[in-house]
Amino acid sequence: MKRGRKRARVNEPAPSAKRDPAVAGDPTPLSATKTSATAEARSKKGHSYKRLPKQFRHDGFDYRQVFREGDFAIYEQTWKSNEHSAAFEVIRIRRRDGFHVGDRWVEPAEVYPNSEAWGVDGWTVLNEEAAFRKLREIAASSNALPRCATKGGSGRIEKIAHMTNGAKNHPHDKAENRPQDDSKNRPDIINPVPLCRVVDEDSLKGLLNIKRQNAWSSRVRLLGLLLLIDYICRNLKNGAITISADLAHSFTSKIRKRNSPTTITEPLCLLCAIGILQKVRPAVFAHIKTSAVYRFANPYRKRRIRLTVDLPPKLASKLKFADLRCENRLNRKYRFRKQLLADLAAVSFSPSARRIIASELSGKNFHNLSALMTAIDCGGHSVRVSERGQITTSIGSCPRELQPHLLLHGEPTVICDISNAHWNFLPLILANRLHHVSHEPGREKYIGDGWREHGTLIALLSDGDFYREWCIDPENDRERDQKKNLLNILLNQKNETCERNILYRRIRAEFPITFRIIEDIKRHDHRNLSKQLHRFTADAIAAALLEVQQKGIVAIPHVDALICQQKDRERVCEIIGRKIFEITGVCCTVAGIRYSPLTENEKQALAVDESS
C-alpha cells in the first residue's frame, strides 16, 4: 500500500499523518483482498471482532479516542503527545474477517481507515467542534443509514445528534480545555508547505533503498532531506552553493547510531552518495576557511519540481525559523557579530556630510552610496566574514571623503588603522618556518641565522617609520608615499616581476632568509602569500574587536582598522597594538600611537638609563 496519498480535506487541509497499513485491533497488515464491512459484532464464522484501541501511536502521532457510537468515532491526533498540535479525525469504522498466516490465526478486527479510504471513511478537521459537526453530518447521510439500521437505525442517528449537539456541559466545550484552538498554538501541520525540489518523496525513498540507506527512509527524515534540498535550490549562486555540515543539520540531523557499517551519517554526504549532489570543492580550514561547495548532479541540474507537502510540527518549526537559526549559528561562530550589528545601528552622518553626499550621489559611486544610505536610514545593516577572515560591514563602501563625517551615537569618530600592516607579519612567517625545520638534523646554522634575522626584522618594524627606512630622503613625504605603494605591490607580485626591481633586491639582501621563504610561498601561486597575510591581519582585528566590545567600547571594523569614537582612540589603539605584538612581537604603530609592552614605570626607568 503506497504512502503519501492525499486525503480529502474538510474545512481545512489535513496533517501529514498518512498510514501504510490500516490501524486495526490486530497489528498484522491487511491482505490485498478485503471483505466487505458489516455492522455486525461477529464475523461470518461467529468470531467476535477485536475493537479498535482507545489509544495508540502511529507514524510519530498519538491517537486518543474522544467519542464513539456504533461505527462512528472521533480520535484526537497529537504529535508526540503535544496537545498544542492537536487535530481531530472523524472515522467510519470498518471490519475484516479473520485469516490464517501459515499456522497462525489472525482474529477478526475492526479497522481504522487507511490513506486510500481517506475522504470516504475518514476526515481530518482542526478542532473538536468541527469534528462533532462532521460526525453529525456523516451519521445523517444516506450512506450511513444502512449501517445504522442494523442496530437501531434512525435511533442511532438521533442519539449521535443528541450527544454531539448542544451539549453545553461537556468538558471539551470549555475554551480552557481546548488550547489547541487558539491560533498561536496551532503550528503549520495542517496547511501544506510549498517546496522547491529536484526529486519527489517517492523517488527519494527509492534512491535511498537502492543504496541501502534504510535508516534515512522514515517520513520525518525524508521530509528533512526535502527541506535541505529546498534550501539548496533557493540559495544557488552560479549553479553552486557553499554549505557546511552544521547548516545542513539545522534541517535534518545526522544519524547518531548506525544500524549498519554502510550507513552514511551526514545528510550532505548522503545526497552525494545517492547521486543528487556533487561536491565541487572540499572544505578548507587553513589561511582560507570555507565550507565545501556543492552543485546538483547532471540529471537534476535543470530539474525543478514545485510541490506542497504536509509537515509535522517539528519540521514545520524548522522551516519557519530557518533564518533565525542561521542568525544564531553565525552569532555562535563569530562572537563579535551580535554586538557589531547593534553598534552599526548607531552609525549616522554629521550635518556637514550632506553636501558631499549630494555630490557623490550624482557621480559614479551612486549605487554603493545609495546602498550605504539605505542601510543607515532603514537599519538594514549586514555583517559578512570572508573566507580569509576579513570582516565586511554595510559601511565598508563608505567613500573616503565621507569617513571623517561618520558619527557613533552622535559622537565624532576616528579610524584606528595599522601602519605597514602586512609587513608586520613577516616575522611571524619567518618564525613559523624556523619552528617547522627546528627538528631537522644539520639545520642548526640555518636556524641560528634565521632567529638573528628575525630579531633584526622586528627591530626595524618596531622602530620609526618602516617605509622611510628605504627612502633616499627620509624627510620627503612624497617619496615616502611612493615607496609605500611600491613595497606593498612588490610584496604580492610574482617572483619574476620582483627580481627586476632594484628596491626589492636591496631588501632581499638585507633579509635573505625571510625573502627566500616568501619566494618559496609564492613559487606556484603568488597569491598564496597575500592569503596568509590577509588571514593574520583579519584575525588580529577580530580579536581586538572582541576585546573592545567586552570593555564596552563601540567599534566598527574597516579592513585593517577599527572605527571608534574619538574619546576611545587611545584605548582602541593600545588593544590593536597589543594583539599584533602578541602574535608577531612587533611594536607597531596604530593611528600614530606606537604600542609599547612596557609599563609606565618601566618606560620612566628606561628613559633615565638612556639619559645617563
Essential attributes:
single chain; 3 domains; 612 residues; disordered N terminus; five-stranded antiparallel sheet; alpha+beta
Commentary on this structure:
The protein has 612 residues and is of the alpha+beta class. The chain folds into three domains: 1-182, no CATH class; 193-330, no CATH class; 410-612, no CATH class. The strands form nine sheets. It has a five-stranded antiparallel beta sheet, covered by helices on one side. Strands 17-20-21-23-22 form a five-stranded antiparallel beta sheet. It is elongated. Residues 1-22, 24-42, 142-152 and 183-190 have low confidence and may be disordered.
The rounded Rg comes to 36 Å
Give the overall shape, derived from the CA principal axes.
Answer: elongated
Main structural class: alpha+beta
Please report the number of helical segments. Answer: 21
Largest sheet: 5 strands, antiparallel
Helix content: 25-40%
Low-confidence stretches: 1-22, 24-42, 142-152, 183-190
| Major sheet strand order | 1-2-3-4-9
**Amino- and carboxy-terminal Cα gap:** 99 Å
* Domain count: 3
The count of β-strands is 25
Chain-averaged pLDDT: 81
Strand content: 15-25%
